[in-house]
Predict the structure.
Amino acid sequence: MAFFQREEKVIVMRSVKSSVKGWKTAKTCLAVLIVIALQALGPGTGRPQEPAQPRIEEEIAKQEKIYRSRGADVPSGYVTGRALSDYAELLPSGFCDALGRLGSSDRWLDIGAGEGQAILDYFAPEDDTAPAKSCALSGGKARAVAMSIEDRRTDKWQQQAASLGGDRIRYLSGKRLRNYSGEELGKFQIITDVYGGFSYTEDLSQFLENVLSLLEIDGVFYTIVQSVHLEDGKDKPSTWYLTELVDAAGRDVKVCSWLKKTACVKVGCESKSDWDTPTELINIRKVCSDVSIPRMKLLKYEAGNPPGRRFQLER
Ligand SMILES: C[S@@+](CC[C@H](N)C(=O)[O-])C[C@H]1O[C@@H](n2cnc3c(N)ncnc32)[C@H](O)[C@@H]1O
């Protein structure tokens, strides 16, 4: 419920303080206290169930401004240049080795790649970068595709793309994952997402469906999501949750419990309760082709880096 405790609680308390002086009867006080109690209890107990659509649209428009921000206007929390070594630290254990095992006919998609620095590091000449930094093993390098809503390619990207030639690295921008067809993108052995679409999308079940449709059988999606209810239950009660899932009755659902209801995948979760915010490192291996993901609808979206989101399972 922490999601709803931000400014709303403060506003309610302020209005109580300023109004109490003028209240003449205990009856009025009682009525106000009932309203406060209903608001504090959250959805399903007096709060309208329907999403405030115009407000969600306003927030999505604010989020667009973050994507489009440049130079000094980029909010400090919107990091777009993480190195491959950061990916190796942030993604589930096993990611770096799996990337190193890919061969020259394999493909890696990085969704929400920002500047594409992780891909540049992977292709850095061996003498420039220690193997641990490039996740490289002795085999050939996979072909890599960076995807970002906004084009954040740097001069370094342009130079490396030119020197590698062909289609060893590609940068796709101008639209979201959901706007690409399967034919346009092809299939991948590894898909990564470090504070990309999985943390930013307003349709999490659709996003995941699109990701899994792009994976080869036995391919793996590696991602991370912060400020969530952890699989191991060790998140602190004071947590300010950024991504919240609830069931049809409004009860909290852990992101990993939801993922584990998906058919044709094997989900691994590593809960990090001792990080600044409770964070789940997630790997999802596709084991057969009839993937089916329990649908969710968006209840709340607040622009940010990443945004605050609340989803409800449809059944
Ligand atoms: C905070 S940046 C992270 C960049 C990079 N992964 C890093 O760690 O440096 C978020 C990235 O996710 C992208 N993004 C967000 N939602 C997306 C979506 N639905 N499809 C594709 N890219 C998305 C943004 O355009 C941006 O490139």
